[in-house]
């Protein structure tokens, strides 16, 4: 049975004497019939089972299940596996009896067999590509490149011209036919009629209604031409169950869906939501659900976007997205695991009526919780009952009100403080303020509690913060309200909810477990940070219309606070606030922002947001605000604002930086929880009451949510907003039918992505595309020693040059002392010579020659790599201008000068021979490839800044590191291994006092695709990020320890090292012996090396 998987759940034509290929049965029943009745006569070419007269007759077995599988006899077809994975849940083994009752297969089965036939039909005789593989590749190209259907058809027509015409062929059809033929690979969607005003959907019991039961509006309009009834509005629903089932159709994702249960959970450390209290709390309450790790935890996000651009037609499109959290950190929330669930029809914001459109999803979630669905697990190769639960929702603050039912406007806007808020109305500014709302979070004996001068006049605080409310308390509060899906619910809620924060009974309360959750709706850190930054930044800059320091705010401040220095003077004018900068400083700041250069992938070019002539700052995106808030605020205003103001804004900057780490600890979050009230109180002593909007207040609750929910990157909007912009928005081909365009494009994208998993390795897809900062390949075939296990990719031009003896000695000594496998020999040398930790210089000078003689004269047959390493490297080296390694892109100083990015900064965390630790900061002058016979080692030659207090300063409170750009080390020991380098960028301080500030702040970067590994975890996890999904800058750069000389006595005040005389580290009494060893090693190499070769290498050339 050529091409039919053995032991699969596929029905197939039974070739026994009785059935004669007319009945479609399962494999077990076919096998039984053949044993009992025998084969049909004259059935030599198995045409009913995919065999052709030219077939080689090999039988395809299920390699994983068959115990009789012989690798030499197996013909594996990935496209048959793709088809099996796609329809496996359509044909469960338990229903095998159904096939006995019918002579002909169903319509779905016929489609499956048509596709099965296409897997064995080449496009033409001799073509390695089958009809199915050609169509799936064309579909993938169309969806990934966002091609129109017309463009896809033109490409297909062009390709078909190359098909031979003298022999039968199967040309690639047009795109409409491709969609029909591949329909089994895709998922389905449902269009549900709804009221144009958003009152109801015509669903379930209301499906037969012809008019809205709320407003009485018509359901249809009658076409004047066709006289057909056309729905006035439709929502698109994408069933969740089959999409979750497909996660278990592939053994790769099926295995990853168990990760949350099997991974090592380190006490007090949270890298994933499964490490956090909310997850563990739910598992303890529902052990039957937690028992099977394959049960799915979900997150839900809702956000609106403008499909026609900022200046186009006003139209609000509201997708609802669901994502599974079972997956590991490197995979969780990647684009292919963000499932579009609902498209709410525009053009208006659904506001609190979003519950109307959530009904199908909530019904499905209830079914998945209470009953579950039988699903095939490809990893364990068994069926199981898959259940699912919704862990929380994610949204910005306005959408928080839509989903939760709690009003985020007015005095009770804070959903955590609820009725215990102390927000008050500002008479002149005409808004509510959360000024002086944070002293109650301080310790009971904190002096700020009793300060009645710098906060509200004459007010002291003697009470504590509001207690956190559990789900049962909230459920009792909303029990008196009605859902908006009930007739009369809106009117009832207006009366009952008039004096409380709840404005409706959210539909999420229909989920049986909703009250058991610690977090039901997340505060979005992304938007809170952005709003906080914009308010603070524009207030400091005094931007009209955006600053919170204005005349009305000052008038409110006079009534509430006692701040004579900011009150109106005798001339009727308000004096300049101490937290604002002058126009001269504004000019300096704008020029500084325009000149900023960051490493590749760290941040966008902020200079595009500056209009220097008009001194305007505009157009900063969420990520721009994220980087500016966390890394640039302490640098930008250090010399422009008074110390008390700078300290307060620096502390809030560091707060967000610590909060948004990829890996957080309980102790760190507890510390942030204690620190943030103090920080906010310091800001309250500086800024006027009009500054404190809800975003400034909500910050006080973020540490609690981090303790409950884990790292914020799983609970913020960056991934979802990127999905809206880079996926859904690009699918809008027909702007007159926004939702329908998105639906079609998304369903096609699902098909194309699923098919791409089965393409041969040489086929380039979006998921397989090499990241531009990819490290490339291992530069040595033999990586027996760690020093040779470097994975890197060279970029740009390369040259060959000759190293002098001093350079070669210094770099060779460093390589030996930083090779882990050489450490036993180093200890042997120390014990033999009696050196101490104070004899570091002698160790660096004498150990290489001792090691050379030891290996050469030793009777033990050492491995080839050890003998090569004991000898000096070739004096001829290859130098590069750029190198991708460790997830970074490194450039030399020369290459970075004329580029908009700066990739030449480097940092190493060092450990001296005596165990002392010190950080070194420098600039890459040269990227060198050493050659130890056939082995290669990549090193950086750097200009190192003086690590003593004269050249490096660390702020005692905030750990801000500054380096003096002209205090550098004068030492030939200027090399490090490329694999040891972390990347930094040096940012100057803007100053109106001096033209050149030689002190610059160190901003440490992290690899763009960095995923922190757990202790003892293998590095086999998928870590790369898609090019279209830029990973948000976050902290958690792992430190690297190695040995390096900690002697900085040679530091001098110079601009460059190029003019320094070369200094040998070799004593005179060893010069002759060392010269002899050097000459003998490389006596035969001189004729084989070109001294200088200006060969250009492309960006894809590997070292």
From TrEMBL:
Residues annotated as domain Transposase-associated = 12-51
Region annotated Disordered sits at 1012-1037, 1054-1103
Q: Which residues form a coiled coil?
A: none
**DUF4218 domain span:** 660-772
Comp. bias (Acidic residues)? 1019-1030, 1089-1103
Q: Which domain of life is it from?
A: Eukaryota
Start and end residues of each DUF4216 domain: 928-1000
Name recorded for this polypeptide = Uncharacterized protein
Query: Which species is this record about?
Result: Cuscuta epithymum
Q: What is the lineage of its organism?
A: Eukaryota, Viridiplantae, Streptophyta, Embryophyta, Tracheophyta
């Amino acid at each position: 049975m050529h091409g039919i998987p053995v032991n699969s759940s596929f029905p197939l034509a039974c070739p026994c004497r009785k059935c004669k290929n007319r009945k479609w049965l399962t494999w077990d029943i076919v096998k039984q019939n053949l044993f009992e009745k025998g084969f049909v006569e004259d059935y030599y070419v198995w045409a009913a089972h995919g065999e052709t007269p030219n077939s080689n007759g090999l039988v395809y077995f299920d390699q994983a299940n068959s115990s009789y599988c012989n690798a030499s006899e197996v013909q594996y077809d990935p496209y048959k596996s793709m088809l099996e994975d796609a329809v496996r849940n359509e044909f469960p083994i338990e229903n095998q009896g159904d096939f006995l009752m019918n002579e002909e297969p169903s319509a779905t089965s016929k489609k499956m067999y048509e596709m099965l036939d296409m897997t064995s039909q080449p496009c033409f005789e001799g073509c390695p590509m089958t009809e199915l593989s050609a169509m799936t590749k064309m579909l993938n190209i169309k969806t990934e490149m966002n091609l129109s259907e017309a463009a896809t058809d033109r490409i297909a027509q062009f390709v078909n011209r190359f098909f031979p015409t003298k022999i039968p062929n199967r040309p690639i059809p047009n795109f409409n036919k491709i969609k029909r033929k591949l329909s089994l690979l895709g998922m389905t969607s449902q269009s549900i009629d709804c009221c144009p005003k958003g009152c109801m959907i015509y669903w379930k019991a209301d499906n037969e209604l012809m008019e809205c039961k709320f407003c009485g509006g018509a359901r249809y309009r009658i076409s004047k031409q066709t006289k057909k009834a056309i729905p006035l509005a439709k929502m698109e629903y994408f069933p969740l169950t089959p999409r979750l089932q497909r996660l278990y159709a592939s053994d790769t994702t099926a295995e990853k869906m168990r990760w949350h249960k099997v991974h090592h959970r380190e006490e007090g450390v949270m890298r994933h939501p499964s490490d956090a209290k909310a997850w563990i709390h739910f598992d303890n309450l529902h052990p039957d659900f937690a028992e099977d790790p394959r049960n799915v935890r979900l997150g839900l996000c809702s956000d609106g976007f403008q499909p026609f651009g900022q200046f186009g037609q006003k139209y609000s499109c509201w997708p609802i997205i669901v994502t599974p959290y079972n997956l590991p950190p490197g995979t969780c929330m990647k684009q292919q695991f963000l499932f579009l669930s609902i498209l709410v029809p525009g053009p208006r914001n659904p506001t609190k009526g979003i519950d109307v459109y959530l009904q199908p999803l909530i019904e499905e979630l209830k079914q998945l919780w209470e009953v579950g669905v039988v699903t095939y697990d490809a990893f364990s190769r068994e069926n199981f009952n898959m259940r699912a639960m919704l862990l929380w929702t994610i949204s910005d603050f306005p959408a928080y009100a839509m989903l939760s039912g709690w009003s985020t406007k007015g005095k009770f806007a804070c959903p955590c403080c609820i009725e215990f808020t102390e927000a008050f109305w500002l008479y002149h500014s005409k808004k509510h303020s959360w000024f002086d709302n944070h002293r109650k979070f301080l310790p009971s004996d904190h002096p700020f509690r009793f300060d009645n001068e710098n906060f509200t006049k004459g007010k002291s605080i003697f009470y504590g913060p509001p207690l956190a409310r559990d789900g049962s308390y909230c459920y009792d509060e909303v029990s008196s309200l009605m859902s908006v899906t009930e007739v009369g619910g809106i009117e009832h809620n207006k009366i009952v909810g008039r004096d409380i924060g709840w404005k409706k009974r959210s539909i999420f309360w229909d989920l049986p477990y909703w009250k058991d959750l610690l977090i039901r709706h997340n505060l979005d850190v992304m938007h809170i940070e952005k709003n906080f930054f914009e308010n603070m930044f524009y207030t400091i800059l005094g931007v009209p219309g955006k600053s919170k320091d204005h005349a009305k705010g000052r008038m409110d401040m006079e009534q509430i606070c006692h701040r004579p220095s900011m009150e109106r003077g005798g001339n009727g004018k308000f004096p300049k606030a101490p937290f604002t900068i002058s126009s001269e400083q504004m000019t300096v700041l704008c020029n500084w922002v325009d000149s900023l250069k960051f490493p590749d992938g760290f941040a966008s070019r902020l200079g595009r947001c500056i209009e220097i002539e008009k001194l305007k700052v505009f157009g900063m995106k969420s990520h721009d605000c994220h980087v500016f808030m966390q890394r640039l605020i302490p640098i930008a205003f250090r010399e422009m604002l008074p110390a008390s103001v700078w300290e307060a804004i620096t502390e809030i900057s560091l707060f967000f930086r610590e909060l948004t780490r990829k890996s957080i600890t309980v102790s760190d979050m507890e510390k942030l929880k204690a620190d943030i009230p103090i920080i906010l109180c310091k800001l309250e002593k500086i800024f006027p009451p009009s500054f404190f909007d809800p975003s400034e207040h909500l910050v006080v609750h973020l540490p609690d949510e981090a303790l409950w929910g884990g790292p914020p990157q799983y609970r913020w909007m960056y991934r979802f907003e990127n999905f809206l912009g880079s996926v859904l928005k690009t699918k809008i081909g027909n702007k007159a039918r926004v939702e329908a365009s998105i639906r079609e494009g998304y369903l096609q994208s699902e098909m194309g992505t699923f098919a791409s998993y089965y393409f041969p390795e040489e086929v380039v897809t979006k998921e397989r595309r090499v990241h531009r900062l990819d490290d490339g390949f291992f530069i040595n075939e033999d990586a027996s020693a760690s020093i040779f296990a470097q994975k890197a990719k060279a970029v740009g031009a390369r040259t060959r040059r000759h190293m002098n003896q001093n350079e070669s000695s210094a770099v060779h000594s460093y390589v030996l002392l930083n090779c882990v496998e050489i450490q036993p020999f180093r200890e042997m040398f120390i014990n033999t010579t009696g050196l101490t930790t104070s004899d570091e210089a002698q160790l660096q000078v004498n150990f290489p020659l001792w090691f050379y003689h030891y290996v050469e004269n030793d009777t033990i047959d050492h491995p080839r790599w050890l003998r090569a390493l004991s000898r000096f490297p070739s004096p001829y080296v290859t130098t590069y201008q750029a190198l991708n390694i460790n997830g970074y892109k490194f450039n030399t100083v020369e290459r970075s000068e004329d580029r908009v990015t700066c990739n030449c900064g480097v940092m190493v965390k060092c450990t001296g021979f005596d165990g002392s630790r010190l950080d070194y900061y420098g600039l890459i002058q040269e990227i060198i490839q050493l050659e130890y016979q056939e082995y290669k080692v990549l090193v950086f030659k750097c200009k190192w800044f003086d690590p003593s207090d004269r050249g490096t300063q660390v702020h005692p409170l905030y750990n801000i590191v500054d380096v003096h750009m002209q205090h550098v080390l004068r030492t030939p020991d200027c090399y490090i291994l490329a694999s040891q380098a972390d990347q930094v960028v040096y940012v100057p301080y803007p100053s109106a006092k001096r033209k050149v500030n030689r002190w610059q702040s160190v901003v440490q970067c992290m690899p763009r695709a960095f995923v922190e590994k757990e202790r003892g975890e293998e590095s086999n996890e998928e870590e790369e990020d898609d090019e279209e999904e830029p990973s948000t800058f976050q902290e958690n750069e792992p430190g690297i320890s190695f040995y390096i000389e900690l002697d900085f006595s040679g530091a001098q005040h110079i601009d460059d090292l190029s003019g320094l005389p070369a200094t040998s580290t070799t004593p005179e009494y060893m010069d002759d012996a060392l010269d002899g060893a050097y000459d003998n090693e490389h006596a035969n190499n001189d004729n084989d090396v070109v001294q200088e070769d200006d060969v250009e290498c492309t960006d894809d050339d590997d070292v």
